[in-house]
Amino acid sequence: MKKIIISIVAIFTISCSTDKRSASLVLDSLQCLMCSVNVEESLLSLKGVKNIKVDLKNKSGVVVYNANVIDLSAIEKKITSIGYNVNGKPANKIAYEKLELCCKKPEDN
Length: 109
Description:
The chain has one domain: 2-Layer Sandwich (Alpha-Beta Plaits), CATH 3.30.70. The protein has helices at residues 2-16, 33-44, 72-81, 93-98, and strands at 20-26, 49-55, 60-66. A hairpin with a 4-residue loop joins strand 2 (49-55) and strand 3 (60-66). The chain is 39% helix and 19% strand.
């Protein structure tokens, strides 16, 4: 009986462990508050993303995520798929074209 209880506790401990990571994001194509909200809402919809803080003034962000569930490349892919550059990766052109005018870089208007 003691071995069974120890086994259950060990399994529970392993399954509840998280590999919590934090990553900086360079979001150089952000233009307005709507851009910040779009990025935050999109990332929070991803399983494994725990928190996202976007700094519009500095065009940057910090994302906290569970690396056992999602990795940084998937997070970056989500951001580019909604029309924004991230960490040197270009935005999806079709998604960028669908953004509101205020979300596009001035030189593209």
